[in-house]
Write a structure and sequence with these properties.
This protein has helices at 127-132, 137-156, 175-186; strands spanning 14-19, 25-36, 41-46, 52-53, 58-59, 64-69, 75-81, 87-95, 99-100, 104-116, 122-125. The protein is an alpha+beta fold and 197 residues long. It has a single domain, classed as Beta Barrel (FomD barrel-like fold), CATH 2.40.380.10. 38% of the residues are buried.
Amino acid sequence: MGSPAEGVGRVASFTVRKRDHTGREVIAYPGEVLHRDERVLVLRTAWAGDARDLGFVVLEPSDEWREFFFPGRWYNVFEIRAGDGRLKGWYCNITRPPRISEGEVSADDLALDVWVTPERQVQVLDEPEFEALPLTAAEREAARLALAELLALAERGAPPFGGKEARPPYGLPNASTASAMAANETGQTSSGTFSEI
């Protein structure tokens, strides 16, 4: 899944490019910048396709998305809300670190995903697809560390998994804090931030 693939229903000011693990573009769609600093890019997008039941959430044309891209991190997080503002949950993609320029962001999707409910229950998705990808050992380790970081953030309700609190200034942890949290969850020691991997 990984993106509101049919695009958005508002004027574009930014372009999101989803690529597969080889770097081939799968989809591109517009978004509106809500917040941008050295730690995070937050875009507003909207599901503009037909309703789609994924089994754990139903995506609907009236849904609004907030997409969080983190420089140097091996994931992105999409907060999904119904048209009435009700939080449906967060869809997280394990990716190579995003490439962010003046008017666009792109990331290479590595198949491994996480669904987080409003109650912060988590479901790891597409592990067989991830295992089948021809990744290097370093990429596979970075992806697993990113997964551990996401699970730790979700368990604590840390931004962006804060529901109504997931708004500016977002209160996002810095990369070294998040890495330490993930290392603590997995029992591993951290040798640096994800931007150094």
